[in-house]
Amino acid sequence: MSNGIQGKVVVITGASSGLGEATARHLAKLGAKVVLGARRQERMDVIVRDIKANGGEASAYTVDVTRRDDLSALVENAIRDFGRIDVMINNAGLMAIAPIAELRVDEWDRMIDINVKGVLYGIAAALPKFEAQGSGHFINISSVAGIKVFSPGGSVYSGTKYAVRAISDGLRHEVGGKIRTTTIEPGAVDSELKLGSGHQPSADVVKEFYKQAIPAESVARAIAYAIEQPGDVDINEIVLRPTSQDF
């Protein structure tokens, strides 16, 4: 009996570690064909070897989500490798926490480029393919910080994650007849995301906050739940956080 995931071609950005890696490994175990995209090719090569050694199907390509052409190439490579694309997971992200008064404008630009434009470029790459085949599923990774502003120091990061929620909701309204859209909003999850703050006092706050983090596999299971639903069921939002997290 099909589990709703077996045989689906799933493209994942930010797939060299953390949520992306955990999702790739989990979905491959469930029978998905996974295509990994990230900047660190050597990390992805290890993941692909592991998946293939366990009987799964996977490929990986060097991708910088701030470059639209890289996302377009990733989707084209997925189709070349496996014939189609069924799910696009826009996961790559950066969390650089610091008070606005610190004026870390370069970090603001980087978060906007990765967290917002990277999602839009992923949508732009996959949407024409989904429309042509009459089906598809976007899964965009936002955050609990996209529901409530992370404080102190998270105003800009939260702004990017609020944007992901808004873009996802608008996309669902525009193309939701046959194309599904899911927003995943995790709380503290063990990944490299917590290492993105260059402002040391803020980095110390984040380090303390992430002591309660749950494993990245928790998010992978939530993503699998959204994918495995029948085609007429669209899981719009999933919020998950550690039981100890009060934010």
Automatic annotation (TrEMBL):
GO MF annotations in UniProt: oxidoreductase activity, acting on the CH-OH group of donors, NAD or NADP as acceptor
EC number(s) on file: 1.-.-.-
Family: Belongs to the short-chain dehydrogenases/reductases (SDR) family.
Domain Ketoreductase: 8-192
SMART domains in the cross-refs: PKS_KR (SM00822)
Protein name listed in UniProt: Putative oxidoreductase
Taxon lineage: Bacteria, Pseudomonadati, Pseudomonadota, Gammaproteobacteria, Pseudomonadales
Keyword Oxidoreductase set for record: yes
Entry keyword Translocase: no
Keywords on record: Oxidoreductase
Highest taxon of source: Bacteria
Pfam families to which the protein is assigned, alphabetical: adh_short
